[in-house]
Write a structure and sequence with these properties.
The protein has helices at residues 2-17, 27-49, 55-79, 84-120. Helix 2 packs parallel to helix 4 (84-120) and helix 3 runs antiparallel to helix 4. With 121 residues, it is mainly α.
């Protein structure tokens, strides 16, 4: 569990230290990539909490979801439509769903610990 947290901390520090300017034309693609990354990480964390984490599914999910979202964005750019909003909505719903599950699972685990400690004391 410490390795993902270390990666997150290193990423946040690098994000503050390195200034990267994103060209205006790639803003939609960057937003989709960030949402795909957040969705994948939270989905992986949820799978880990449910003891069903599989690295191959985790990596393939990230690549396929990000690729399909980028494809939707590119098709939308060609057609002059904001099709990428569908991916944004889908990722957002999944992110909030995963956060809700993780919150409930962590709270349940925390409360069980407190109850068992209370029984000992």
């Amino acid at each position: 569990m410490w390795l993902p947290l270390l990666g997150l901390i290193v990423g946040i520090v690098l994000g503050f230290l390195v200034s990267v300017e994103i060209p205006l034309g790639y803003v939609k693609y960057t937003a989709i990539a960030i949402l795909a990354a957040i969705d994948t990480v939270l989905g992986g964390l949820r799978a880990q909490l449910e003891d069903r984490f599989d690295l191959l599914i985790f990596l393939s999910g990230f690549i396929v979801n990000a690729g399909f979202a980028a494809l939707l964005t590119a098709i939308g750019d060609l057609l002059g439509l904001d099709i990428y909003l569908g991916a944004v909505i889908a990722f957002s719903i999944r992110i909030f769903d995963n956060i809700g599950f993780i919150r409930r699972d962590v709270l349940a685990a925390y409360l069980k610990v407190d109850r068992s400690e209370a029984r000992r004391g």
